[in-house]
Amino acid sequence: MLEGKIAAVTGGADGIGRRIAESLARSGATVVIADIHEEAAGKAAAAIASMGGGACAFKTDVSNPEDVSRLFAAIEDRHGRLDIMVNNAGIVIQANAEDLTFEQWNRTIAVNLTGVFLCSQGAARLMKAGGSIVNIASVGGHVTSASFSAYAASKAGVHGLTRALAVEWGARNIRVNSVSPGSVDTAMSEKARAFNPKAAADRDSRVPLPRRGSVDDIAEAVLFFASDRAGFISGRDLVIDGGILAKHPGFI
């Protein structure tokens, strides 16, 4: 499906990002795993290589413009182009809004929103024959929840940026879409759930489907957007939340 394609995945060392990287590689793409955790990224790339896929790791802080520039310079030097960009790197800092520090706010926006912009910008410059950019947003960018003010703002920003870039780069055959996971079983989500277990359990009880999401659910959606099967889809957000947004459109 993706034979001969060059893909980059930020935050690809573990969780959703790692499964996305594995899925792209299994479909034939050569994958660059960019992550701030260099050792874990190397292990993820080695695991893909052991399965017969093509992968390499590159230490990257997506909020650092110099790091991002080095990443795309390396991709251009090694591959000459980029076909697929998955902006998955993200953080969650939970705090009541009145207790959220300026540094916590800035860090959340820097990673979750500015990082998506910087990497999309770098990717577009290498998408000489068009390509697909997939941003991992969140259902939290559509609906509200206590203690997630910075996270919700950053992910809502990703939705807006996705639409804006789809419009601006469409004439160059660059498609830009986003995927918005709901509650998914990952280490990061477990850390967020631990902040307020009662609220997390209450949110789970509102999901119409009888389970939480999996990393495979998200990876399959990204694979679809990255492939030619989504060749006439751009500027769209796909919510993968088990139906909670349909049932509770304003608050989770």
Question: How far from one another are the termini?
Answer: 37 Å
Which percent range describes the beta-strand content? 15-25%
Shape call: globular
How many runs of DSSP E, i.e. beta strands?
7
Question: N-to-C SSE series?
Answer: EHEHEHEHEHEHHHEH
Number of helices: 9
Radius of gyration: 17 Å
| Unreliable sequence segments | none
Tell me the major beta sheet.
7 strands, parallel
What integer is the average pLDDT?
A: 93
**Percentage of residues assigned to helices:** 40-55%
Strand order of the largest sheet: 3-2-1-4-5-6-7
Task: Classify the secondary structure makeup into a structural class.
Answer: alpha/beta
List the helices and strands and how they pair.
Layout: E1 6-10, H1 15-26, E2 30-35, H2 38-50, E3 54-59, H3 65-79, E4 84-87, H4 102-126, E5 131-136, H5 149-169, E6 174-181, H6 187-195, H7 197-205, H8 215-226, E7 237-240, H9 244-247
Parallel strand pairs: 1-2, 1-4, 2-3, 4-5, 5-6, 6-7
Helix pairs in contact: 1-8, 3-4, 4-5
Walkthrough of the structure:
The chain has 252 residues and is an alpha/beta fold. The chain has helices spanning 15-26, 38-50, 65-79, 102-126, 149-169, 187-195, 197-205, 215-226, 244-247; strands at residues 6-10, 30-35, 54-59, 84-87, 131-136, 174-181, 237-240. Helix 4 (102-126) links the parallel strand 4 (84-87) and strand 5. Helix 1 crosses helix 8 (215-226), helix 3 (65-79) packs parallel to helix 4 and helix 4 runs parallel beside helix 5. It starts with 5 loop residues before the first strand and ends in a 5-residue tail after the last helix.
